[in-house]
């Protein structure tokens, strides 16, 4: 999320906004900022008034000024400030005084390097007389073992009688503190809290006792601060006393609907004041006082949001009406929602531009001549053309001539400001996505561009393999002896290089890599985590190898990411090369799935959506804050017609133009049922075999529970699949508790949950029933890009077991997946026990953590062969991936067994099945003996070997090895 904030010339602020919400606590929001904490042990004999000079990414980026030490701990003085940039390469600092005398040790510039910055916090310890910069406390002590901070709070009405603050150490319980004194600033209280877990951050919120009213959202301050200052209505935490403009003024003037407006002031409004408000642009306004500082204005005719409406008052000054809750009303959609084509319509003779901006006063189209090897700036604008407002707030202009390759943006003028935005419907973008580009899409088609692909009869036939474009080919960034053998490392084209092998000392080994590995396994679909254009703060397309990111930071929904292209400056190259990748997969018998992230944007307020129609595309809480069910700062509002349209149009575009074969919806539970059904309907019309699935988690977003596209409402979304977290956690233990175990690694009593997963979460019987109406609504998996890999999880749950034992557990999990109903999902590298070194959230960890380790594959080829054999067994036996719940209930029968063992029989009468199957999963650490159904059986899977070839003939009974799965065929 783009966090380039302006910073006050008097004081740098420390307004922490959090995201990601990992289980073990809160983290700074991706891309928002970096919290800098410098602990300084000064020379006690010094009489200088030392302060800090700070800068990042070049000395001119951060304001060139002194930054005082604004806290103190057991180590010494502390300076805590927020930098408005995420992941700076380095942060420079000097300890000096206002006469530029430098403290001993600061004779030369010192730096906090990138490797010292953890989860958005750059914390170091320094001492006078030493050049050392330590990322850990050199004394080994805890610098904030208890919290004692004076809180100064200003309210414009100076009424503090019922107010206090609620404060809590991050991730701990809190308590209320009453304001018990006043100073020249306002009310004062001292927050004193124990801090046994040594949290760096403390949450605080001013509120009336009983919580009938609170001042804004949660704020967080540095636990070592001695004093902080808060101002009513201002989310900023100040570490020096700020200057306050105490002049009475109008603080907001918002339209709640088309005939009701809310006006707020920063000071009480008297009865005499009410009659002095005057308005322009309103018909018959009537003012009613709701409370001391809130007025309601009603009008007899609908307001026109495209026109400027003002309010003036001799005491409170002026205000301009902005669209408020009216934007999020059904009436707004009824009046303005548009169902026609948006974006660019290109012809060689002319190009038409259409933008939906119903609350804008004016819109200008800006055309650019794009540099060939540099990012465009406003200096590259060649033409500015006023667009004409039409029905339902759509601005249109047609420009004659061939605009192929021309960049464009929109300058949108609103009631209070003017902004520049990229077209949300842009299908091509310039480097880093800062301009849309007009292109002739026909010219982006590769020489070989067909609609032919491997057939897929039903969703449960799919075996999905999830990877990252970069992970597949980057190996090896950790050494020089080994190499993936893929030339186009980290690129779309690297995905489809043929004949690649692991290189050792410059020579080919027998180990297949990249595309050949995918074909070797026998999977059907390759899923790519985000390949749409994501934010520059995550990966800079002009220097793509400088940083790594998964890409769950959307910037432009309808254009490919440029860092995976061989030339990010040419808008057509990324389009053509993505198409070449998809065509290459199709030509090799593989289908392609796109991971789409319509649930949030990198930064709501800085997004093109909000620049064009502020406040419309996102959900808000009752208190007026952005909703945060996603955990990353904002939730898009798919229930609103134009966000709904954008999602459905976007998916349809990717499916038609690029021939994508499936769409995985990130945090699908944020979306509404209606939108997901519309997506499914659209893809089915294009190609009935296109998969639609996602994370149907239950998320805390302000949408009625019955409308959320989650597992609870799965039966309302036929054909839309959900990741099966029940089976995932039943197999290995909760992803939210590192040491919690599951069926494969020692936990007992999980047989019913495992059976739910085996039947694909359908209603099998009274005891075995899940969320799905049909098996095509279930994605069966045990690991994905999120959380620990299965191997890393086993290292946490079973640290004393040998690698051989953990390998058996790992194979047992994969065996259960491949013999369960539903659609199978495998994480890239799962076949050779992928490890990320224990990193559970590697979204921006380096290639050395995220790359597929092809040497590990070579070392574990037997494990790869086992997975390959399981896939072969699944594909050869339709009874393992039945298409209906009715067939599962009819042809799959569970066998009574002892604890930690699950066994079942699959009938040869199942559709297209040629032989009866008997499957046993033994999670015990001892062998178990089971009686077989009558007849002669062929063992084809035994925990060591898997495939369709007979390992041995069995009848009467079978002894199943510890921590193993056996599959027998009659």
- In terms of DSSP E residues, the strand content is 25-35%
In round numbers, the mean pLDDT is: 91
Largest sheet: 8 strands, parallel, barrel
Task: Output the structural class.
Answer: alpha+beta
Give the terminus-to-terminus CA distance.
Answer: 57 Å
Strand arrangement within the widest β-sheet reads: 38-42-45-46-47-48-49-50
Share of helix, binned: 10-25%
- Categorize the overall geometry: globular
Can you tell me the residue ranges where pLDDT is under 50 for at least 5 consecutive residues?
1-31
Total helical segments:
17
- Give the radius of gyration: 31 Å
How many β-strand runs?
Answer: 56
SSE blueprint:
Blueprint: E1 18-19, E2 27-28, E3 34-41, E4 51-56, E5 66-67, E6 71-72, E7 77-83, E8 90-96, E9 110-113, E10 117-118, E11 121-127, E12 146-154, E13 163-169, E14 175-178, E15 181-182, E16 187-194, E17 201-208, E18 219-222, E19 227-231, E20 234-238, E21 250-257, E22 260-265, H1 271-274, E23 278-280, E24 286-291, E25 294-298, E26 310-313, E27 317-320, E28 322-323, H2 330-336, E29 343-346, E30 350-356, E31 362-368, E32 381-386, E33 388-389, E34 394-400, E35 407-413, E36 418-421, E37 436-437, E38 463-467, H3 469-473, E39 482-483, H4 492-495, E40 501-504, E41 507-512, H5 514-521, E42 525-528, E43 532-534, E44 554-560, H6 571-587, E45 591-596, H7 608-612, H8 641-658, E46 662-665, H9 673-686, E47 691-694, E48 721-723, H10 725-732, H11 751-758, E49 778-780, H12 790-797, H13 803-818, E50 823-827, H14 847-850, H15 854-859, H16 861-876, H17 885-891, E51 892-895, E52 901-906, E53 917-922, E54 928-941, E55 952-960, E56 964-969
Parallel strand pairs: 3-11, 12-19, 21-28, 38-42, 38-50, 42-45, 45-46, 46-47, 47-48, 48-49, 49-50
Antiparallel strand pairs: 1-2, 3-7, 4-5, 4-8, 6-7, 8-9, 10-11, 12-16, 13-14, 13-17, 15-16, 17-18, 19-20, 21-22, 22-25, 23-26, 24-25, 26-27, 29-30, 30-34, 31-32, 31-35, 33-34, 35-36, 35-37, 39-40, 40-41, 43-44, 51-52, 52-53, 53-56, 54-55, 54-56
Helix pairs in contact: 8-9, 10-11, 12-13, 13-16
